[in-house]
Amino acid sequence: MTDLKRTVLYDLHLRLGAKMVPFAGYDMPVQYPLGVLKEHLHTRAAAGLFDVSHMGQVILRPRSGRLADAAAALETLVPVDVLGLKEGRQRYAMFTSPDGGILDDLMVTNRGDHLFVVVNAACKEPDIAHMRAHLAGACEVEEIADRALIALQGPAAESVLERLAPGAAVMRFMDVAVLGWQRTELWVSRSGYTGEDGFEISVADDRAAALAEALLADPAVQPVGLGARDSLRLEAGLCLYGHDIDTGTSPLEGALDWAIQKSRRAGGVRAGGFPGAARILAELAEGPHRQRVGLRPEGRAPMREGTALFAASEGGEAVGHVTSGGFGPSLEAPIAMGYLPSPLCARGTTVYGEVRGKRLPATVTDLPFRPTTYKR
Amino acid sequence: MKYTQDHEWLRVEGDLVVVGITEHAATQLGDVVFVELPEVETMVASGDEVVVIESVKAASDILAPVEGEIVAVNAKLADNPGLVNEDPTGDAWFFKMKVDDLAVLDEFMDEDEYNEMIA
């Protein structure tokens, strides 16, 4: 593990007492002395600071100078309306494969003269190669390798960031803006991966530690590691790429149909035209054969990733499996997400997860498990 | 107090052996969110998996340190698994065992030896 990469906040993590683990090729903090449970609860009660600098930041700059050309090009890779994305707004998207699977999920931002894309750490190299292979005619694909990414999430995030960088408070969910802090340009989006109101802040590497420390100086803010990041996103019903969605799951199976705007669906002004359109449009019309659902296990035993799911308490083959599961600290109960055949996906259906040789009941539940608190 | 390689502590209480996990183990596990206890009056062999602990991170097993009969379990842990982190060597004992001969405990580490192992 000597070749693990480090983010520019590595020294700060060590100083804060983080326990470091390998994640997507980086040495990342899984927790700080507060511990996963309290870091989770603190984020929901006040604000948590997350280092997400391992994620990929990419600019797509249209060669023609017209943003619409970059947007139209990106639309050939995602089943999402990018042309309709207004300046200063962000949107969730996914790269699809020719057979309708998901290569990665991402955030796309319209920054006026270019698109700004944030992709998962584990996928960033193939994603950039994918964009270069397909978009190079229309755009320059610039990897931003000299900026860190810091997430500030939770009900206190707005007031904390507003004090440092005025202009944060007037932003709404999925707005993006360039804010100033100590003569440093912050690329700020009002979004995140916790189900909480909050921000993601792209900042030049050489200012990142100073910004993180300025945020952490506020008594409302605690550093939060990957452990709580995972339980927070799970309560929010958000997918973890490589677990809940991957090349073997379509957007419809992944219950991500909300991310496919009308313009890209059958009958829309730019219907289809993305990889896997035949399958994805057919699934939009007819419904997928299986789907990602929320599960609430009865009792307290967590159903972890890989837990086999059965339709009955005895007999029969497994009908699906858990893709993410654990304990939801804010719900004080185990929660899970997994795939089930469509006839079993109705809310309230009881299925059985096999835990240590015993089939334990779980109820199919709407996602998110906990209402989100986005400032819309 | 005696200690096992698996980070359990063993305390003699009359003719019974009380079993829990060390503070070191509790810290390593992280916040405990679920404890599954054995049935009382169960005969167990040394090394049997008798308790399941789930933390926010992962599941782990607590093994029977010696052969004997489980005669009591700490029901408080089922409702309040967090007790394992708050008071691992006190209130958060897992089970009490009846053994043939308490001399079986002699083979386990004392506190100094255990501290040396985790150092």
Fraction of residues of chain B in helices?
10-25%
CATH class of the domain at 10-55 and 146-235 in chain A: Alpha Beta
Q: Shape of chain A, please?
A: globular
Q: How many E-type strands of chain B?
A: 9
Number of helices of chain A: 8
What amount of the residues of chain A lies in strands? 25-35%
List the helices and strands and how they pair.
The complex is a heterodimer of chains A (376) and B (119).
Chain A: H1 10-15, E1 19-23, E2 26-31, H2 36-45, E3 47-51, E4 56-62, H3 67-75, E5 90-96, E6 102-110, E7 115-119, H4 124-135, E8 139-143, E9 147-153, H5 157-164, E10 176-181, E11 184-189, E12 198-204, H6 205-216, E13 221-223, H7 226-235, H8 277-286, E14 290-297, E15 308-310, E16 320-328, E17 333-341, E18 350-355, E19 358-365
Parallel strand pairs in A: 3-13
Antiparallel strand pairs in A: 1-2, 3-9, 4-7, 4-8, 5-6, 6-7, 9-12, 10-11, 11-12, 14-17, 14-19, 15-16, 15-18, 16-17, 18-19
Chain B: E1 2-3, E2 8-13, E3 16-21, H1 23-29, E4 32-36, E5 42-44, E6 49-55, E7 59-63, E8 68-73, H2 76-79, H3 83-86, E9 95-98, H4 111-118
Antiparallel strand pairs in B: 1-2, 2-3, 3-9, 4-6, 5-8, 6-7, 8-9
